[in-house]
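thread: overnight batch results

M.L. [08:02]
morning all. the overnight job finished for the chain we discussed friday. pasting input first so we're all looking at the same thing
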Amino acid sequence: MITVRIPTPLRPMTGGKSEVEGTGASIGELIEQLNAAHPGLKDRICDEQGEIRRFINVYLNEEDIRFLTGKDTPVKDGDEVSIVPAIAGGSHD
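M.L. [08:03]
and the structure it wrote out:
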């Protein structure tokens, strides 16, 4: 199983759980499987084309998948995936 860390804004879709377990050979397959278990999750993570939204960061074992192979990044049992919404804003000096 792959451990997936769920950010606070998406926890209503996972019954309030901060971590869920999933399966799949890639990040894309994992997202599909998570969506089957927690309907609506994919819509919050991916855009209409099925690509991960610009303001969502996905990390595989603390590595940003954008610097790996994106949704095609392979995953295996024991991996940890974190879904992290980007924090908007900046300093207002």
